[in-house]
């Protein structure tokens, strides 16, 4: 009985591997902590920060630098 259940879990495991890192089971826990996702978010945040910084006038940038 236990053996059967284990096999079923293994089948689920193989059909739900995270397609981003191809190394972990795609559980909701993993999706929240996927290392590939974190890297994408980090890059996205840097791009957004750059855009915001560019949209600030150079006068405001000087003010921020003084802090
Ligand atoms: Zn992943």
How does this structure look, described?
This is 30666_t:CDS:1. This protein has 67 residues and is mainly α. It has one domain (2-66). It is 75% helix and 0% strand. It has helices at residues 2-15, 28-33, 35-55, 58-66. The longest helix is centred in the last third of the chain and has 21 residues, at 35-55. The termini are far apart. The model has no long low-confidence stretch (mean pLDDT 81). Bound molecules: zinc ion. The site of zinc ion has 7 residues, from loops.
Gist of the model:
With 67 residues, the chain is mainly alpha-helical.
What key attributes describe this structure?
about 70 residues, rod-shaped, binds zinc ion, about 75% helix, 30666_t:CDS:1, 4 helices, mainly alpha
Overall 3D form = rod-shaped
Specify the helix fraction band.
over 70%
Termini Cα gap: 66 Å
Ions, cofactors and other bound molecules: zinc ion
Order of helices and strands: HHHH
C-alpha Rg, in Å? Answer: 22 Å
Strand content: under 5%
Secondary-structure-derived class: mainly alpha
Q: What is the count of DSSP helices, taking H or I runs of 4+ residues? A: 4
Number of strands: 0
> How many structural domains can be distinguished in the coordinates?
1
Please give the largest β-sheet: none
What is the arithmetic mean of pLDDT? 81
State the low-pLDDT regions, or none.
none
SSE diagram, text form:
Elements: H1 2-15, H2 28-33, H3 35-55, H4 58-66
The structure holds zinc ion.
Zinc ion is lined by residues 18, 20-21, 24, 30, 34, 36.
Protein name: 30666_t:CDS:1
Organism: Gigaspora margarita
